[in-house]
């Protein structure tokens, strides 16, 4: 009886689970030998809700295994859907589709998901703040991932003989993959052990104090805005944990676990003011035009802060409190204050329905096994139909399928989650889902797939087409500049979405292997 009640609670927890009806439909159309387009579409839609169930099952199991084991489980299953699709495609020798899908997953998270978060959140709130310290570290990791993709392509272009170039690039790719995995493990230690204090998100009362209505806020009912408990610090979504955040929009994303026992409002405000005041004096010098614009003295938020805070002007926080100030304050507090109870690992703090509907260990394990098996079945049918799909529709290239369609399938659930939390003014969590998933794909999934291909005897390397490497470089370049200031608005989101649309348009008209040259993935 308890199993039935738990299963019912899980199924009705998200609107995405309505798409579970496509699971038997996708299996049926395969055995009915329907057209390849129908098989691909039905199984692609079926994978979306299964990814959400897998995410919830993983979180439920991880919550009962302790911080360390739970964190490792979250890392392993963080991008399980993509891994399953990639492994099946490797087995069926679709190496080019795997390479395009790896790049496409990074692009979908960096441009589409993050852009939608900035766009929709910026329409409801004029500007949204987040932890810039975490995004700066993420920018460095993104730069490393771009380097690992650019260098093999440039290395391949240095050879005059294509056969020799392919052999050497394969060796370089395998060695690079081992190095990247070691960097990723080092990053886990950095984030979970030695510098975990850096990943404390912005206190919600600070976010609310700087929040102003956005250009489209009057279209929405003010009562929809959720109340917040001031003085409660929350844990930012971990970049390495975001891969599992695709459960859905109604899954208790507000139930963010406190870092530790929250101080009073007055204590928190005094601490922030004392620590950030010297940093604000330092930041008065305009480093860039963008920084100067955000700190312009005539802003509406300055007037709003003055109206809502009756304290004397010398005690007022800066009109645009920098995220670097908050991060510096967190670091100083961590070093100066007496030892506090160690917070739970941020890898295990996720927007999950486990906080709302506790799941038994047996139910969670069964759900994990069943959802993984169904994803593997649907992914197998979907990938198997690609050859017939491309043959039946010459206008649909493998590049478009791998670069656009498959990443959208694998990231659809976490797309909904990221946008929903951004809509609720929780940008730390939204960026952790979007940017963090890109980092995990670039530094964990990509080298792991190369090593798995090595073990299976497949020529899976890091030599991507010139078009794919340029797309990744430009995307990471734009995102790095947009996220470093710790603030977002709807225009930045529109820019990211426009960039993804341009890439999708170019990918749709990308030539097939027969018409492309060697740098374009030609035979």
TrEMBL record:
Lineage of producing organism: Eukaryota, Fungi, Dikarya, Ascomycota, Pezizomycotina
Family in the record: Belongs to the Ca(2+):cation antiporter (CaCA) (TC 2.A.19) family.
Domain of life per record: Eukaryota
Name used for this protein in its record: Calcium/proton exchanger
Location of the region described as Disordered in the Swiss-Prot/TrEMBL record: 278-321
Keyword Nucleus applies: no
GO cellular component terms given for this protein: endomembrane system; fungal-type vacuole membrane
Any GO BP: intracellular calcium ion homeostasis
Presence of keyword Ligase: no
Keywords noted in UniProt: Ion transport, Membrane, Transmembrane, Transmembrane helix, Transport
Entry GO MF terms: calcium:proton antiporter activity
Protein localization: Endomembrane system
PANTHER family named in the record: CA(2+)_H(+) EXCHANGER, PUTATIVE (EUROFUNG)-RELATED, VACUOLAR CALCIUM ION TRANSPORTER
């Amino acid at each position: 009886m308890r199993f039935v009640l738990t299963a019912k609670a899980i199924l009705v927890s998200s609107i995405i689970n309505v798409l579970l009806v496509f699971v038997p439909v996708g299996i049926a159309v395969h055995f009915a030998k329907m057209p390849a387009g129908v098989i691909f579409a039905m199984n692609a839609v079926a994978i979306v809700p299964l990814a959400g169930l897998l995410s919830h099952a993983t979180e439920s199991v991880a919550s009962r295994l302790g911080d360390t084991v739970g964190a490792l489980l979250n890392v392993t299953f963080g991008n399980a859907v993509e891994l399953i699709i990639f492994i099946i495609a490797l087995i069926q020798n679709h190496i080019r589709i795997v390479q395009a899908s790896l790049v496409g997953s990074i692009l979908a998270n960096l441009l589409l998901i993050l852009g939608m978060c900035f766009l929709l959140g910026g329409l409801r709130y004029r500007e949204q703040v987040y932890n810039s310290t975490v995004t700066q570290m993420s920018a460095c990791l993104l730069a490393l991932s771009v380097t690992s993709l650019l260098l093999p392509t440039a290395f391949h272009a240095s050879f005059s003989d294509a056969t020799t170039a392919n052999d050497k690039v394969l060796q370089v790719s395998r060695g690079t993959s081992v190095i990247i995995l070691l960097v990723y493990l080092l990053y886990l230690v950095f984030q979970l052990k030695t510098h975990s204090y850096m990943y404390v998100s912005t206190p919600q009362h600070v976010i609310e104090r700087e929040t102003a209505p956005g250009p489209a806020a009057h279209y929405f009912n003010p009562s929809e805005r959720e109340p917040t408990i001031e003085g409660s610090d929350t844990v930012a979504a971990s970049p390495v944990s975001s891969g599992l955040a695709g459960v859905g929009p109604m899954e208790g994303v507000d139930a963010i676990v406190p870092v530790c026992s929250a101080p009073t409002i007055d204590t928190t405000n005094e601490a922030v003011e004392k620590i950030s005041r010297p940093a604000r004096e330092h930041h008065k010098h305009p480093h860039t035009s963008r920084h100067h614009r955000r700190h312009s003295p005539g802003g509406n938020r300055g007037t709003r802060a003055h109206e809502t805070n009756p304290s004397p002007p010398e005690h007022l926080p800066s009109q645009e409190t920098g995220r670097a100030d908050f991060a510096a304050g967190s670091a100083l507090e961590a070093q100066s204050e007496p030892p506090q109870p160690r917070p739970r690992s941020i890898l295990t703090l996720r927007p999950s329905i486990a906080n709302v509907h506790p799941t038994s260990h047996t139910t969670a394990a069964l759900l994990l096994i069943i959802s993984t098996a169904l994803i593997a079945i649907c992914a197998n049918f979907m990938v198997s139909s690609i050859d017939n799909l491309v043959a039946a529709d010459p206008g649909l290239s493998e590049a478009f399928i791998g670069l656009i369609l498959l990443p959208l399938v694998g990231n659809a659930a976490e797309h909904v989650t990221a946008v929903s939390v951004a809509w609720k003014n929780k940008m730390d969590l939204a960026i952790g889902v979007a940017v963090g998933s890109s980092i995990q794909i670039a530094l964990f999934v990509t080298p792991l797939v190369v090593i798995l291909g090595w073990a299976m005897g497949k020529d899976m390397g890091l030599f991507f087409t010139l078009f794919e490497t340029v797309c990744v470089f430009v995307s990471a370049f734009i995102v790095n500049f947009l996220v470093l200031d710790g603030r977002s608005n709807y225009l930045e989101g529109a820019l990211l979405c426009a960039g993804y649309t341009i890439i999708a348009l170019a990918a749709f008209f990308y030539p097939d292997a027969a018409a492309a040259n060697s740098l374009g993935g030609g035979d």
